[in-house]
Specification:
The chain has helices at residues 2-16, 18-21, 25-50, 57-62, 65-97, 106-121, 125-154, 159-169, 185-201, 204-210, 216-250, 260-267, 271-304, 315-343, 348-359, 361-372, 382-401, 413-427, and strands at residues 376-377, 429-430. By secondary structure, it is mainly α. It has a single domain, classed as Sodium/glucose cotransporter. α1 runs parallel beside α7, α12 packs across α13 (271-304) and α13 crosses α14 (315-343). The protein is globular. It has 18 helices and 2 strands.
Amino acid sequence: MIGTSLSGVTFISVPGTVSAAGFGYFQVVLGYYIGYFIVAFVLLPLYYKLNLTSIYDYLNHRFGMTAYKTGALFFILSRTLGATLRLYLVINVLQLFILDHIGIPFEVTSVIILVMILLYTFKGGVKTIVWTDTLQTLFMLLALVVCVVYILSDLNLGVGAALEAMSDKGYTQIFTWDLNDKRFFIKSIIGGAFVTVSMTGLDQEMMQKNISVKKLGDSQKNMMTFSTVMVLVNFLFLFLGGLLYLYAGARGITTSGDDLFPSIAVNLLPASISIIFIIGLISALFPSADGAITALTSSFCIDIIGLMRNQKLSEEQRSNRRKLVHLSFAVLFLAFIFLFKWIDNKSIISILLDIAGYTYGPLLGLFAFGILSTRKVNSTWVPAVCLLAPAMCYLLQQMLMSNPGFYQIGIEMLVINGAATFAGLWAISKKG
């Protein structure tokens, strides 16, 4: 779960934000921590009570088949976009700083990496992923610690002195007090909490790991241990970001953003540290992609085409169809990676949060309406509500962006979108 949640975006993008936003991202991380409690003590008991294989089957229990398939399709859309964007970021970094210099094209790199993922997930499924992701996450965290220790040593700083130097540069600023700012602390914390509820608690990829634990109590322990580690690791990534900018300033380097960490690691650090960085980066790549492809295959087979419910098919036929779906998602991933390369936008973490706001919002609204109310909805209109809510939110955001002096929507887009979906579901419902 740690490896899936961190990915290459945390490894590359979070340190890169420190120059522009200081430690402001930690506001969102504090929100994440609150969200993990909601997942552990509200959603997990519900999933265990219903003994779910796919968490979207809850929507079938509560609203019927149309809502169930709508929720699953929104997960498939959001996870496909999010996972391919994370995958693209790491492949692009490897390409720019290493593989271009030895003449390997971006397209060849992408194909090779996806083939490697297919090779070890095709038969093993979630069991294989648990072991490979654990090993890869260990390497990623090891690379993080090694880079921090080396840069501290090279700058001849202790942890306290480094924090003091970062403070002098304004890097350690966590809270934003301007109400109209997109990073206003209340918006960031509340938005972070709902991001966790949506991207962990309402995400089949994350939840399939948790609900595979035999007992609810053990699953809740797993969630709370995971959340504590996540807070500490995210702070360490921000600390690394501050160190990287101090190091860049000391060496007269002007690189910033997503290019900062790889640029310093590959070009300025000793070869041994560069190799550890590359191993860590590759280790960050796989957990965010292998689990996504497997979870998408699982959701599509169970939720969309009802493979497990089809009693006419033999086990061999089911297996063949699962493999075909698995391969199809790998091809779809490849297509999206090429698309992102063509768009070539640098601010990956902000794009990810924007995608979450629009695609997880309807899921948040659906689950919230199901849990918080007893009303019955007209299932036929559920897809229309789930499409209309993000469309209205997009128009609202564009209108506010055209007036910079007014309130600007940030990470709380997810909450607004979920609330709009909730209101739409209320409008098409009756007392139950």
